[in-house]
Amino acid sequence: MPEGLLIKGGHIVDPSQGIDSIGDILIEDAKFSKVAIGTTLRVNNKAIRVIEANGMYVIPGLIDMHVHLREPGYEHKETIQTGTYAALRGGLTAVCPMPNTNPINDNATVTSFMIRKAYQEGYCKVYPIGAITKGQKGTELAEMALMHEAGAVAFSDDGRPVMNSLVMRRALEYSKILNVPIISHAEDLNLTEGGVMNEGILSYAFGLRGIPKAAEEVMVARDIALARLTNGRLHIAHVSTRCAVELIRRAKAEGIKVTAETCPHYFTLTEEAVTGYNTNAKVNPPLRTADDVAAIKEGLKDGTIDVIASDHAPHHRDEKLLDFDNAPFGISGIETLLSLSLSLVSVGILTMSGLVEKLSLNPAKILALSGGTLKEGCQADMVVIDPNKPFTITEESLASKGKNTPFLGRVLTGKAVYTIFKGKVYEVV
Predict the structure, then answer these.
(1) Would you state the torsion angle of the CA atoms of residues 344, 196, 129, 102, taken in this order, to the nearest 10 degrees?
(2) Is the CB of residue 203 less than 8 Å from the CB of residue 272?
(3) 4-58+378-427 — its CATH code?
(4) Looking at residue 1, what is its pLDDT?
(5) Coil, strand or helix: which one is 269?
(6) Above 80 in pLDDT, residue 17?
(7) Mean pLDDT of all residues in the chain?
(8) Are the beta carbons of 88 and 124 closer than 8 angstroms?
(9) Quick check: 170 and 145 in contact, CB under 8 A?
(10) Rounded to an integer, what distance in angstroms lies between the CA atom of residue 405 and that of residue 394?
(11) Got the DSSP string for 92-134?
């Protein structure tokens, strides 16, 4: 194995240091040894591997703060090994799996298992997110302090909301003690029961029960009110509607401790992707309207939405072959996160530096993780991107067990070509 690595002539983008320029990066002993902007690094050590990065972006490794790795319990959908391998291919060096496994990650034993499994078999760093409530039943707080001690970096009942407002209040109070965010799956189950797509003209035309936007918005409003009451740390997951964006924007202006994320499918697709009863486009919250897509882009541009996450939700092929009502929600998105997000740069919604903030720096800040930077002395986690490289999304091209993506057959532009984790190079082919 080479003693070091030299990345030459790449366009280095690191908002943590205000860097957005051509330069070289030297990696030694799995750490960033030297970042040279505007000058050329020369090394005499022949054991150092050189990667020519002319015309490519060189950025910190991506951090996906919302994935489902399915293990333990649903290994037929995904495993920690396959999910982290797919992540590495997508330019990710850290992922945060949600707790809706089997058994649910609502105790320190499961948290420790996931971390140990990732250490043994994983290809990138895994930071588990623990459940807010026992069994994700929404009635009794889980062992948050013990899970945090074991390595949980945040808490969420993702996949289900915490319907009991008092329980959510207590969770937000605990968030202050542990200094971690509570991640809200904003959904009023009384409004969404039986719903499978966005409520509107199309749902009526397709004869499918709809999920109204208000189901997300009333819970966003409630959780913001509770964050105001408790001064706790709130993070809103997978934002999908215009009103939800506006509620978060107002809360931030008021000084409430709230951050938010969205996913590529919410700024790339509309409810029309469901046409033909395409179960690969069935996701929760559902794909919305063109107006909502525009609002998500506005929220990303003005900083209302802090993070872009994949909400990677792999399923077995047979499950998605069920009729639309019975097929599970979820899109396999860990390998398309980067490329779909790069489209925001090409159309001027975000600068490249702004995109790196959404995909790397902000997740690291919100969850207090190492990473999100190319600072000298830090662990060498980074990705080299060819912004002009086209590729076609096919089932064969996806390393994840989950092939359930509405982007199958689509040609995307921009791809990770080298992902470096702990100084080790993985070449994406």
Answers:
(1) -140
(2) no
(3) 2.30.40.10
(4) 40
(5) coil
(6) yes
(7) 97
(8) yes
(9) no
(10) 9
(11) EEEEEE-S-SSS-S-SHHHHHHHHHHHHHH-SSEE---B-SBG
* 115 neighbors 150 (Cβ within 8 angstroms): yes
The pLDDT value recorded for residue 38 is: 84
Q: Which of 35-49, 126-140, 404-418 has the lowest mean pLDDT?
A: 35-49
Question: What are the φ/ψ torsions at residue 86 (nearest 5 degrees)?
Answer: -60, -40
Structure tokens belonging to residue 148:
């945090």
pLDDT of residue 39: 82
Q: What percent of the chain has pLDDT over 90?
A: 96
pTM of the model: 0.97
Residue 287 is given by DSSP the state: P
Which residues are designated catalytic? 311
What are 400's two structure tokens? 């994840």
Spatial contact of 303 and 27, defined as CB atoms under 8 Å apart: no
Domain with CATH 2.30.40.10 in the chain: 4-58+378-427
Q: Are 264 and 340 in contact (CB under 8 A)?
A: yes
C-alpha 51/C-alpha 6 separation (Å) is 6
* Residue 288 burial by Cβ neighbours in a 10 Å radius (0-12, 13-18, 19+): buried
How does pLDDT run across 318-353, given as a tens digit for each residue? 999 999 999 999 999 999 999 999 999 999 999 999
Q: Would you state the pLDDT for residue 180?
A: 98
The boundaries of every CATH 3.20.20.140 domain in the chain are: 61-367
Report the run of H or E that residue 367 belongs to, with start and end: helix 362-367
**Is there a contact between 85 and 177 (Cβ–Cβ < 8 Å)?**
no
Q: What six digits make up the tokens of 47?
A: 């054991």
Domain 61-367 CATH (choose: 3.20.20.140, 3.40.50.261, 3.40.605.10, 3.40.1350.10): 3.20.20.140
